[in-house]
Amino acid sequence: MKLPLSLTVAGPAARVQLPALAAAAGLVVLRVGVVLLRPWPLALAVDHALSGTPDNPPAVLVFAALATVVLSAAIGLLDMAGLRIVEGAAERIGAGLRATMFQQTMTRSLRWHDRMRSGELVSRLTTDVGRVLDGVVAVSTSFLPDAVMLVAVLGLLFAFDPGLALIGLAVVPVLAVLAVRQRRLIRAAQQDARTESGRLAGTTTDLLRNVRAVQAFGRADRAAAVFGTRNRAVLGVELRAIDVDARWTPVADIVLAVGTALVLVVGGRHVLAGLLTTGQLLVVLAYLRDLYSPVRGLTRLSAVLAKAGASATRVRDVLECDEAVTDRPDARPAPAIRQGVRFERVGFGYEAAHPVLRDFDLTVAAGETVCLLGPSGIGKSTLLHLLLRLYDVDAGRILIDGVDLRDCTQRSLRERFAFVPQDPWLLDATVAENIAFGNAEATRAGVLLAGRAALVDEFAGRLPDGYDTPLGEGGVRLSGGQRRRVALARAAVSTAPVVLLDEPTASLDPASAHTVIEAIRTTTADRTVLLVTHDHDLAAIADRVVTLPTRVLQVTGRR
Ligand SMILES: Nc1ncnc2c1ncn2[C@@H]1O[C@H](COP(=O)(O)OP(=O)(O)OP(=O)(O)O)[C@@H](O)[C@H]1O
């Protein structure tokens, strides 16, 4: 039997919760038993207290009343315990699933991230995981009791009148066929709804992240229009999904009513022919109602699973994507970079149809500072990304101390490089935490020392809590030059032998640029440096300037 996709996707995270789910399943079976007992006190009261039998009617009545209360209380308590266990287990499964998904996204290749919008990813991590959990909860809480109830009532019905039972059951295959078709429709509608919701989340994140641009260009109306288009698209597909789902309810009810009508007609004829008493026909009809309730519950479950399945596909796409830059099985620690770095006939393109680099050669000796110059878009930043193995080369190879990058473990490789990107990539954390990001083992003293070297001290003293001041999303509370200095401090706190600097003085005024250049001189002393810049003052600190397409421009004395 094929498991529903939502269960397969939740599987690994659900395994540890199996005992809890099994306990909850036990409770719901117990609940079915208690529910089946519930009419008996009434029967006891009717037959032994109200029918004029010689028993002690008041005592029987009191007992029946107490039994009714006890059974109802037991059902309530079982509901409460079952709900707590199932919902608790579902939340734990969800947390596990989100953690695994997040971990996977952190190691996905940047090509994958380039295609996937962050809002879309958040939508999958939150809403889609929630829908998958709905599927897990529905299976745990409704499949078992409905199945148990179905078997129990079927047994009673067949024992009582097999002929009428078969007539009543005749509509079930019709319902099953319709349920399968409906399930497909619901799933398709839900898939559309989830896709549009993901798009809306992507657009919203993009607009929120760029709220400054929106306001600065007076484009709030335009942004609202873009959002509105996506929002209406979500509304449209959600309404369609609701419509598909709602249409199912009368269909199921009508089919089941036809079953009851058939039994009424055939059973009525049996009564008229004297083959059955009226009371017996009423009993069969009552059983039939009890039978249809779990049938309806199971078809409802199929609809919930269809919704969960649409979300499970989107969760699985994240979990099972194999686009990761992975370590080779025999990968070893990266060498210490005592000889240098070498690009050998490197070819690369972000997209296959648009190569950025072709047959690129460059050697950087250990301890050397090399400046990369060249027109915008020629691939200078790309070279730094390839060196960090954020992307893998398409052709040729990159060697550090003669060892191919791809033969090294990524963790050790990244420890060899301190990267100061063009956009400083600051986190919503304090100044100190942002600096410490450059070295997992950094001490407070080390962070402060790096801050001093990168001239962070100059402005940190004026912040409300100094180095402990939160910087806001993306470091929004700092100026461009201050952000760059924090990024440089990250490089300074790192013990990496090679520093990669991408346009560290871009768009700074001469005074700030001068400060940043000073900070670079201090933080990169005695290290190998690969520097991308258009700034001639900064280029002057290099031992060698290389222009792209490759040509050695000048050899200068270092610093
Ligand atoms: N993530 C990406 N996906 C697709 N194309 C990209 C991506 N990043 C860069 N490119 C393209 O690759 C080319 C090289 O980009 P790169 O950033 O390396 O240029 P650059 O020389 O550093 O430019 P600049 O001096 O303007 O910073 C450009 O044409 C750019 O459009």
Automatic annotation (TrEMBL):
Keywords in alphabetical order: ATP-binding, Membrane, Nucleotide-binding, Transmembrane, Transmembrane helix
Transmembrane stretches, start-end: 59-78, 132-157, 163-180, 248-265
SMART domains: AAA (SM00382)
ABC transporter domain: residues covered: 341-559
Entry keyword annotation includes Transmembrane: yes
Residues of the ABC transmembrane type-1 domain: 22-307
Protein name, UniProt field: ABC transporter ATP-binding protein
Organism: Kribbella lupini
